[in-house]
Amino acid sequence: MSTTPEFDVKALAAQTRQMQESMARARERIEQLQATGNDGTGMVTATVGGDGRVLSLRIDPSVIDPTRPDVVEDLVVAATNTAIDALRDLHAESIGAVTEQIGGLLDGLDGSPFGGAGHVPPPEQHR
């Protein structure tokens, strides 16, 4: 006879629902995110949405030289990359918060026959 506590399927189902809801909320928050970056001088500014698409691009007219389009190109690339980097940081923060929540939910399974999150005992040997 086993001394392992009974596995609570209802508690596991509730924990699973909570994790799914947390992930859905995180996805919604990520979709709503916006990040802005600039070229370092503030002459070009780009804003990207949570999905990584460029939402806006502002270029100070003083940097536009028809004989040197490469200057504007470089500034636009720098501003856009800065915005994307900022968005990645926001994504990481959002995912980190969800990961903490999920970890807390998994810790609640300590009474399970698996001994909590991340631990699965070896199978019992029957004689």
UniProtKB/TrEMBL annotation:
One Pfam family cited in the UniProt record for this chain: YbaB_DNA_bd
Any coiled-coil regions, as ranges: 9-36
GO molecular function (one): DNA binding
GO cellular component: bacterial nucleoid; cytosol
Compartments in which it is found: Cytoplasm, Nucleoid
First-listed, main subcellular location of the protein, grouped into a coarse class: cytoplasm
Domain of life where this protein originates: Bacteria
Keywords: Coiled coil, Cytoplasm, DNA-binding
Description of how the protein assembles with itself and partners: Homodimer.
Family from the record: Belongs to the YbaB/EbfC family.
Protein's job: Binds to DNA and alters its conformation. May be involved in regulation of gene expression, nucleoid organization and DNA protection.
HAMAP family for the chain: DNA_YbaB_EbfC
Listed name of the protein: Nucleoid-associated protein APR03_000609
